[in-house]
Amino acid sequence: MSDKTDTSTEHRLILRQLELKDYKEVKEIMDIVYSSMGAWTRKELSNLLKKFPEGQICIEDNGKVIAAALSLIISYDKYGDKHTYEQIIDNGTFKSHDPEGETLYGIDVFVHPEYRNMRLGRRLYDARKEICENLNLRGIIAGGRIPGYKDYADKLTPAKYIEMVRNKELSDPVLSFQLSNDFHVRKILKNYLPDDKESRSYATLLEWINVYYEEKEEVLGGRKTVVRIGIVQWQMRAVKDLDDFMQQVEFFVDTVSSYKSDIVVFPEFFNAPLMALTNEESPSEAIRSMAEYTEEIRERMIHLALSYNINIIAGSMPEYYDNKLYNVSYLCRRDGTYDAQYKLHVTPDESHYWGMRGGHKLKIFDTDIGRIGILICYDVEFPELARMLSDMDMKILFVPFWTDTKNAYLRVRLCSQARAIENECYVAITGSVGNLPKVENMDIQYSQSAVFSPSDFAFPHDAVIAEATPNTEMTLIADLDLDLLKDLNTGGSVRNLKDRRKDLYNLSWVMRKEE
Predict the structure, then answer these.
(1) Which of 351, 374, 371, 350 is nearest to 362 (CA)?
(2) Which of 198, 268, 319, 350 is catalytic?
(3) Could you tell me if residue 326 is left (phi over 0), alpha (psi between -120 and 50 degrees) or otherwise beta?
(4) Best label site of 135, 235, 263, 472, fewest CB within 10 Å?
(5) Residue 343 annotated in active site
(6) Model pLDDT for residues 381-411, shown as the tens digit of each residue
(7) Do residues 310 and 266 make contact, with C-beta atoms less than 8 angstroms apart?
(8) pLDDT in tens, 131-155
């Protein structure tokens, strides 16, 4: 028997630099989005790529470009606040581009209409901000259309319309999005795009200020040194159906992603409320019926990861196949891929009540925040597993758990803290709280979610980065500095990884024969 891991998915998103060979797909999108204004010509795109290739970015899905953002670097003093779009693009020659300039000017963003529910615009804006920061530019300037103004032009001045959009009394398809992405309106421009009839030729001069000016160096996709994680201390509550359950999940994904977190983690068996919908009296039958929801939940989690641009560790869920019951945690990456870690050690209670089995593989996961590991609850109480992951260069260990009593919780907590010290890594744990009166064997919960660090001078004095209020639904947001781990490994007060006596002992994995 081998663990079931089918990593295929409908989407495979990649953020990359735009190339001239992408022109056909770019034009296809622009012909739809700008049907009344026209698309860039191939020559214009070629000029832009020659001038500033790093600033032209796109998102592809399974090899096809579905969204793009174009930009220039300019010396803003040459243009000031009173300029037109044609002046900035210089009739498609882009001679305005100045590598020695201090401002990134956004000249276009477009998303294929079929993908507009996936928040790709926000992903492009975030990438632009990253370019701005890593090129050490003062900020981003853009001229923004206000296409919704056409419906209010006979009632409101442009200034009043913009004010009402800013106050969320009205919604504009472009301006509302830009304001939600931390841009502010610097000025109202007249005749910025004379052919923009929807905006009545008005535009907003938008600005985003780079607060990290003079601090960043890399352009796009550089190695993250500080990773922001969000963990959900989940309240168990009755649900009406799967949609009701997923609405709660999306609330937390949305909330955590709004803090620009790189990853969000849910607890073990976070979908246990669905067990009450199975109408099965036997716990073993109830959990097998609940396992029928697992595949759909995973697919919805992948969509949330794509839509909110955040990696998701989907706690853990039961999986039933080949007449065998397993406990699996899915990592749903924000690029559309996913992977799985099966719980290796089942507790006596899980075996007795449910007939659950342990998996047979230990995995290290490559992500855009570095290499991570996942150990489900009881697994973290076996130090060999975390050590093997550490040998594979794990930097952060995530432990979704479910415990019913404080003494059970303390086993998970204390072992997790030990794993952080032993392996010179960060460890994040999260569980559920509340109760499920109609679900036998999962009726009460105890949790105090936390994030642990190694114990040395560079880390908190108690090696606890953050911890939740016990038995209260909430989230924790924590920043983890990966460079501190590197420094610890080479120059810490003690060096647990480096000082192992490999001349005396070793650790090896004995693979079980597949059944």
Answers:
(1) 374
(2) 268
(3) beta
(4) 472
(5) yes
(6) 999 999 999 999 999 999 999 999 999 999 9
(7) no
(8) 999 999 999 999 999 999 999 999 9
